[in-house]
Write a structure and sequence with these properties.
The chain has helices spanning 37-60, 67-76, 111-127, 157-173, 225-232, and strands spanning 13-17, 31-35, 87-95, 98-105, 135-143, 178-180, 194-201, 204-211, 215-222, 238-239. It has 240 residues and is of the alpha+beta class. The strands form three sheets. It has a six-stranded antiparallel sheet with strand order 5-9-8-7-6-10. A two-stranded antiparallel sheet has the order 1-2. 29% of the residues are buried.
Amino acid sequence: MKTCYYCGAEANNKEHLPPKQLFKGFHVDSLTAYSCENHNNMKSFDDEAIVKSMLFALEKDNIIKNDDIKLAIDIIRQSHHQVKNKVSENTLYKQNCIDYNFIVLNPDVDLSNWIKKLSAGLIWYKTKFFDHDNKFDDSFVFERNSYPKHDTTSDLTFFEKEYNNKIELTSIIEANDWINGWNDKKNIYPATIYAFYYKFINKYIMIKHIFYQQFTFYNFINLSEKTLLKIKSNSSKIVR
């Protein structure tokens, strides 16, 4: 029986890792994992909102963008209305009588849970089995680029403290080498759109997901010995 990558239930669907929305306009061979009806449908509701929120944020940003990211932004430019119930532009703080607006995901979109499921799917793809001893629900997700909304938008102390904490934690996490993530397909994902890396810390694995070279998420997961051995037996090259 085919089993779901996340819960072990009977699977009749396939989950794309990451979702297909990320690669609109690009010719790639997607990694996939078997998924039950429940997890396939639940995750798909958030896929489009999360991917488009990243691109809407990049469109607002003044940083220099490469051609791949420009293409991705062009493709979704006219589709904000499709996710207006989940993505909005809000004022996060005010300074010198100026409103600073940012792209915000609605509270019902659980970004951390979305990252956990992406990590779980990638691990299933690598090992080709489901293991109840893997603690995906209890794993820790650190979002380097996002900040929660604060009630007192005129008080920047909150954001400054949060920023400094994230910088400090990021420096600790990045202290050791990373290993290239796996992708055995012919047409692999453009690194400018999505890339992932991993490293082992005792019985844990840490996966680093990078979207559009700007949005970085770290997922710290407690894995079974069986799963760890399977991943370690065929690791890729080490990178910084």
